[in-house]
Amino acid sequence: MKKNLLKSIKMLSKYLIYGLIIQAVVSNILLASTTSAQSVYQVKMSLKRTQGNLTQFFKEIEQQSDYHFTYSEDQINLQKEVKINKSYNTLGDLLAYISNQSGISIKQINYNLIVSKAKTPLISTHDDRGIITGRITDGDTGDVLPGATVRVAGTNYGASSNTEGEYSLRVSSGDVTIEVSYIGFGTISETFTIKGGETIVKDFTLKADIQELEAVMVVGVLQGQAKALNQQKTADNIKNIVAAEQIGRFPDPNVAEALQRVPAISVERDQGEGRYVLVRGLAPQFTNININGAQIPSPEAGVRFIALDAIPADQLASIEVSKALTPDMDGDAIGGSVNLITRTAKTRTPSFSGTLVGGYNNLMDKPNAQGSLQYGQRFGKSEQLGILLNSSYYFTDRGSDNWERDGSELEFRDYELTRTRLGLSGTIDYHLSENSEIYVRGIYNRFTDREWRRRYVFVPNEDNSPFENNEIERSMKDRFESQTITSISAGGNHTFPKLSFDYEVSYSDAEQDTPFDNEVNFIGKPDQLSTDFSDSKWPVMTSVFQDEEALVNGSTTYTPQNAYLNNNNYEFDELETGNTLAKDRNISGKININLPYNLANNQAILKFGGKVRFKDKSLSVTQNTFEWEGADDLLLSPFEGGLVDHHFLDDHYQIAAHADMDRVLGFFNANRSGFALDTESKIEDENSESYEAEEDVYAAYIMSKIQFRKLMLLGGVRYEHTNVNYKSNSVIYDEDGDFDEVLAEEGGTSYDFILPQVHLKYNLNNTTNLRAAATFSYARPNFEDIVPQNVIELREREGTIGNPKLEPVSAFNLDLMGEKYFGTIGIISGGLFYKRLDNFIYSRTNYQTIEDVTNMRITQSVNGGGADLVGIEVAYQQNMTFLPGKLKGLGLYLNYTYTASNAELIREENKEEINLPGQSKHVGNISISYDLGKFNTRISANYRGSYLQEIGSEPDEDIYLSERLQLDWTMAYAINNKFRVFAEFLNLTNAPFEAYMGNEDVVIQREFYSWWSRIGLKFDL
Predict the structure, then answer these.
(1) DSSP letters spanning 751-789
(2) CA gap 706, 598 in Å, rounded
(3) Are 808 and 778 in contact (CB under 8 A)?
(4) What is the pLDDT of residue 557?
């Protein structure tokens, strides 16, 4: 391990040195004509001229020195008369005298003298700098304003405030005027006199510039939009920002559902709730998830991507979705990088905020509840210490009605679930000085899911084989699962006139614990059983038990046709018990260094740094399968109990009571000797699934950002080295189908990526940006794909095997984006994106020779060829305050994304072209809101088109998810500026989850959730 670490550090150092040399060479070439000059106060100067206009003086100075004047004739009156009646010895003294008489400012940048309108007699060389720093807040609410533009008046040089509203701007010494602007707020300015090395602390307070609706200022409602849009506007790269207040305007309790409102993002759902995020038509494994910039591990055993339903949305200050990476970001994100930002304390005034919510689930006819509480405050004379604590708890009873198809088999599934979501977060930050800060941030999330699944499986004997029977399987599953995600980070950032740097160490831990997963199965053998799928929405099942002994059970009378409901017709088959524990841990550290410099009169920053991340991931499995060997048959009827859904799938089908797991386990424990353990199944399940893996990542980068008047250029390169080691087992069955042996497997792999990144941002004006980016990125394989957890059945001539030689997916990305921001807090944007993927990963079934057995049908994840994805993304949101009368309360939130893809793969030895898995052709949101004084209402529609979910062994076996449209409605009333009541109604049209195989006529799953609602109170004290 140490040897690999030293080798990697040596390699990183080499690339970092190369990068610095390249940067120095390029800078020297560009600056060849502007070699560092003396200060004008060190240059002796004596002119014969004592009177004349500015043009005459500038021309004579240029003739007698190496200096050159740069100015705009539209801004400077070159005919301004100047008289020299005072002695001077240096060029600096002369220029100071000229500037004082003519009301101009002259800045020296090497041999260039920049002339502009100002009160400054002279701003000296670029090495003589000071810092203006502070915080920008809303004058009405006191809230901080992230993404505010802070710049030197009359120039494009400036900075933007961070998520805490803090800004830091290096300026040359002398008099300088600073302007602060923010969408939806009035622009303010102030002039400062700066001395070299001095730091001035200045907080700015902005006033809202928003029209009033019915004499009620709507700034509180629109503030979330303003924050998000300002951060997007000032960002260096293409990204979307979702502020906490904006999240609160939609009925989205978890992070995944909040993200579905962002352009070009769709979600995969579980039991009706958003879970996994798909960015720009790419599957979840192509997006990485970060908390406060630290990549977090996945609690799930085999994958890297995160189930975001585990994280409450109200724990966050904002969400950033970067769609084009910069060199200082992790490179393993082809779709995008999602950063969840937690909250921090803002002012010395203690603040308390929270929610109290109660709700109702129509399908289960049960309530749900949510509560959150947040406290924040800054302490000290200068508010150096900030403490924020946040907590959230959510409880719900959910369920679903489901039917599924597998060939001629028909399955009914009735789910009942109890879910909880606990979130705790906190931040402690301390300002050592105006320019130095240290912090500790932490977040803990725990998501629990208690699931009861009641299932019928109708298995007809299609061929009327005398060796097979018609079967109806009845099973009951009782499973509890918890997912926890913990992230703790500590670091600091420090800004000086000639240098700034930040650093951070972080620990992230994710765990999925299933302490019990119990399932009991009973089987009935009807004399007649058939299924009919001619109606793809509602298939038909017909069964007959002719020889049943008892057709009457209590008050229920059974006929031969509905005797499948009689639990006396089902005998015990098997009982499965087990538990699993999946762990994933990241330890990481990083440092970033910023060096400001001037490039041909333009302000620039050179940034470089490095990062290491150490990951440990494992899965342990315990699985037992028991069969009954007692003398008497065990029927289902003595064990029946629990919930019975008498309106299953809206009365399309009937189901009866299933086994009650408590009764089954009670009987099992009392009659343990009558049950036999299937040892072969236990060996296979536990050895083929369990594994351990280590992954170490070393990264370094160098980049530069240069502001050329209206054009920002950001470019650089990132290097990442990954080393993976693993331990697992293979299970082998001999040619007779009997268990043969377990083979221990050890191995590993490593790979390197060099990732150039270039970004352009051109400011047409203060509210319009044009953006372009060309970037390289990649995506690592899932652990379940590379770890050789092999199961080989020689008799059946089939098996599943891992692929340690699987290569990461690499990508080249092109992005173009235009965006226009409105003073009424809105935006219209549109863009194109293109991605070229190489070595994309898919599951392939082919025939191989294993242990001298030919024609083994093997399923394995492999690399495909190339894949192309192209898309169009448009968005529009605006509050129509410019409309007359009460129409000014209208607001629109619209976005739409079109994507098309083409991927090459080999299936059954034939080359094919398919769409990329996860790629929906159409994704969009429509939301119409209305503000009438203190009342606000919004109706929102979220649409996700169909997409390929799973690649089969042949095209007819490809599984697709059908399109889905969900309609939600929210209402809110502001009692005053501290209390607000609201109501939310979700999935009003009972949109189902649907899947089909091969083509849309072969529907294989339909699942319904009905609608659910929440009513609550929000307060800010």
Answers:
(1) EEEEEEEEEEEEEEETTEEEEEEEEEEEEPPPHHHHS--
(2) 9
(3) yes
(4) 65
Give the residue among 690, 632, 684, 638 at the shortest CA–CA distance from 660: 638
> Encoding tokens for residue 277?
């995020």
Q: What confidence tens digit (pLDDT) does each residue in 647-680 have?
A: 999 999 999 999 999 999 999 999 999 999 998 8
CB 473 within 8 A of CB 523: yes
Give the pLDDT band (50/70/90) at residue 577. very high
pLDDT in tens, 24-39: 333 433 333 334 466 7
The Cα–Cα gap between 106 and 175 comes to: 11
The DSSP symbol for 824 reads T
**pLDDT reported for residue 676:** 94
- One-letter amino acid of 682: K
Answer whether 783's CB lies under 8 Å from 841's CB.
no
3-state SS of 414-482?
EEEEEEEEEEEEEEEEEEEECCEEEEEEEEEEEEEEEEEEEEEEEECCCCCCCCCCCEEEEEEEEEEEE
Are 838 and 811 in contact, with CB atoms under 8 Å apart?
A: yes
Q: Would you put residue 709 in left (φ > 0), alpha (ψ -120 to 50) or beta?
A: left
Query: Element (H or E) spanning 152, and its range?
Result: strand 149-152
Cα dihedral 322, 324, 327, 331 sign:
positive
| Contact call for residues 220 and 243 (beta carbons, < 8 A) | no
pLDDT bucket at 988, cuts 50 / 70 / 90: very high
Residue 600 confidence (pLDDT): 76
Are 889 and 936 contacting, i.e. CB atoms less than 8 angstroms apart? no
pLDDT at 47 over 90: no
What Cα–Cα distance (Å) separates residue 369 from each residue in 252, 316, 788, 987, 1015?
A: 14, 19, 44, 18, 9
Instruction: Tell me the torsion sign for CA atoms 815, 330, 289, 339.
Output: negative
CA–CA gap between residue 988 and residue 237 (Å, rounded): 37
| R_g over Cα of the chain | 33
Residues in the chain: 1021
DSSP assignment, residue 282? B
Burial letters for 499-538: b for 16+ Cβ neighbours within 10 Å, e otherwise?
A: ebbbbbebebbbbbbbeebbbbbbbbebeebbbebeeeee
User: Which helix (H) or strand (E) is 225 found in, with range?
Assistant: helix 219-234
The rounded distance, in Å, linking the Cα atoms of 585 and 694 is 10
pTM of structure: 0.81
CB under 8 Å to 348, separation ≥6 — which residues? Answer: 377, 378, 379, 383
